[in-house]
Amino acid sequence: MTNLPDDPRLALMLLSSMIEPGDAELDDLLGEIGPIEVVKRLWEGEVPERLQRITSAIVSCTHDPAARAADIAAATEECGARVLIPGDPDWPDQLRDLLLVCDADEPHVRPPRCLWVRGEQDLDRLCRRSVAIVGARAATEYGQHLADDLAAELTEAGWTIVSGGAFGIDRAAHLGALARGGSTVSVLACGVELPYPKGNHSMFNLIAERGLIVSEWPPGTTVMKHRFLTRNRVIAALTAGTVVIEAAHRSGARNTARYAAELGRVLMFTPGPVTSSMSAGAHQLAREPWEARLVTRAEEVIEDLTGIGGPLATPPPPQRRPFDRLTEIEARLVESLPRGYVVETTRLAAAAGVPADIAAETLDRLLQTGWVDRIDNRWRLSRGSHS
Amino acid sequence: MTNLPDDPRLALMLLSSMIEPGDAELDDLLGEIGPIEVVKRLWEGEVPERLQRITSAIVSCTHDPAARAADIAAATEECGARVLIPGDPDWPDQLRDLLLVCDADEPHVRPPRCLWVRGEQDLDRLCRRSVAIVGARAATEYGQHLADDLAAELTEAGWTIVSGGAFGIDRAAHLGALARGGSTVSVLACGVELPYPKGNHSMFNLIAERGLIVSEWPPGTTVMKHRFLTRNRVIAALTAGTVVIEAAHRSGARNTARYAAELGRVLMFTPGPVTSSMSAGAHQLAREPWEARLVTRAEEVIEDLTGIGGPLATPPPPQRRPFDRLTEIEARLVESLPRGYVVETTRLAAAAGVPADIAAETLDRLLQTGWVDRIDNRWRLSRGSHS
């Protein structure tokens, strides 16, 4: 008799090593009979034919599935990770929203079955006030500067930054947040023990120390193009909103953006030069029917994330000049005073297009504030006036 | 007896030299009794007290109003200009839309009473397919490059560019259009005989030759701050839409933008670096309740101007790579093939998360297109494949 895993967590870990995330048929079956029973039926050849075909290679050469599951658990422990499954106290329930958007065209957009997490933090708590910052690997200096800045300021405002682990925008966002003492979440498309790309090695170590490295795939899984796309749905679903900073027209960040929009999360983008191909994909978001919001500062991101009732971004302080403090009518009168001449009230009023009585009142006020001088009931621009 | 102008056009010219545009009381009176009668009553002291006060300085020192009107007509003719009044065949009727937006807060947002135009062209015809390009005087090289480019391409697509006459964006837009042989319209806040600023002298000459210089004020009128704001409503009302290219937070371009939005014209802006103060005002438009559209190319401007049924901007051609032509399932299979190994169909199908029968079909197709080689019913990545 086959030795089967007797723990749902172990069974889910085993299944995740055999079948890619977002398999609608498997997920439906898991919902019906639970992971232990699914594993049992797989090895007994009693699952729908399609699932049998997908798993046949592994089933046929694995005579002790419980031992295989234990191996995965050991590899998980060895790299200091653990596995979260739905129902765990630190499982982020917002991932369920993915059920709302998966459909026949995209059956793989399902909630994850389980998550490997590396780090001490509580994933649910970290993501409760979180925002994704995503963008191009081949980002410009400008884009990286923006990502770093935005991540730093959002961190200071108490928001957790969630991103992938790529060079460019992902890296800049993590480092910006980490530099302010933040805990970030890096969601990977490979095993958590060897985050890709290796060049971000020390960044990943810092994230594991302070935040969390997260993946749907067991240790030993390597990156593949389709896994990045699958991973993106998790970044979008974990967070309250996604900010796209620099994305070429074809870009994974735009894929994350679409998931965010479909999930009803707040989709934002930062603008850049029209002449920069790296900004083209971000600008394109503004012209798609997703209502992507243009953001230029952390305050605006927070305003958009918190919506009605939340803090409003203070408009940047206008560069006020003395002239600008004048009312419309005051300004008209000051401007209508020819430099170096003295003018009667009625004539000045006519030039400024202001009724004479209002002009007289207003000129008295301008006299008090030092804008004009009065000479024999006529008016002159005061020498101290700047206009 | 006072010598009064006997022609409505002359009467309007005279009135325009006495009372600033957008005087609700005068305009209402003009609607009731017509310009000749208004002039008569002004000189007889039979108009409402406020109008009397505004005009008293001129009325009291002008004993021959008909001669004064004739002087204005002579100055108009001398600079090669003419005066258009509502009802003229080349009067642009869309200016009437301003009646929809003037209210107690902004009584001056009224249609112009008359327009001085310098140039041969028909103003109505020129503006029938027109778009305003406005922005900062202190524009960056980037902004000027954009304005020039956009104006050139819109001109080639048969659109007339309308703008002010300032340095920076206005100038770049005019020159971009003129360089492609376009006729542009420059709407001024001073007399058409001496367009401000003088530094754009040769540009204005070119515009007068090929397009039109337009103003609500008679020859001899100098610019004033409030006249620029009054002028902006005409730029917004003449055109089907306004594109704001670079505007600081406090900027006349944003004033034009607001009029365009209120008039139901299409309001557009071009993005720029978040770090550029010159783009801040343009970006701010996207966050105001005006539904300003982000545009990066002339095609997008035209798409927005023509709306439903108009030409759609073709999305920029994606930079296709051979791998990208593969379907999702083909791509998964190609990526799951380890380099340098041969793999069985079922094992490869499992690794790619694809049902074995679909994998088999798909691999046959990939064999034909040269992506994979078959060796004894097992599969290998073809040497020629790029992935």
Question: Please, could you describe this protein's structure?
Answer:
By secondary structure, chain A is of the alpha/beta class. Chain A folds into three domains: 8-72, no CATH class; 97-306, Rossmann fold (3-Layer(aba) Sandwich); 322-381, Orthogonal Bundle (Arc Repressor Mutant, subunit A). Chain A is 45% helix and 12% strand. Chain A is built from 16 helices and twelve strands. Chain A has helices spanning 8-16, 24-43, 49-61, 65-78, 98-101, 123-127, 141-156, 169-179, 201-210, 225-238, 252-262, 277-286, 298-306, 328-336, 345-352, 356-368; strands at 81-84, 115-118, 130-135, 160-163, 185-188, 212-215, 241-245, 266-270, 293-294, 343-344, 372-375, 378-381. In chain A, the strands form two sheets. Chain A has a nine-stranded mixed sheet, sandwiched between helices. A three-stranded antiparallel sheet of chain A has the order 10-12-11. In chain A, strand 5, helix 9 and strand 6 form a beta-alpha-beta unit. Chain A is elongated and about 115 Å long. The mean pLDDT of chain A is 90. At the A-B interface, helix 3, helix 7, helix 12, strand 9 and helix 14 of A face helix 4, helix 8, helix 13, strand 9 and helix 15 of B.
| Tally of individual domains of chain A | 3
Which pair has the most extensive contact? A-B, 60 and 59 residues
Distance between the termini of chain A: 94 Å
Largest sheet of chain A: 9 strands, mixed
Low-confidence residue ranges of chain A? none
What sequence of helices (H) and strands (E) makes up the elements of chain A? HHHHEHEHEHEHEHEHEHEHEHHEHHEE
Total DSSP E strands of chain A: 12
Multimerization status: homodimer
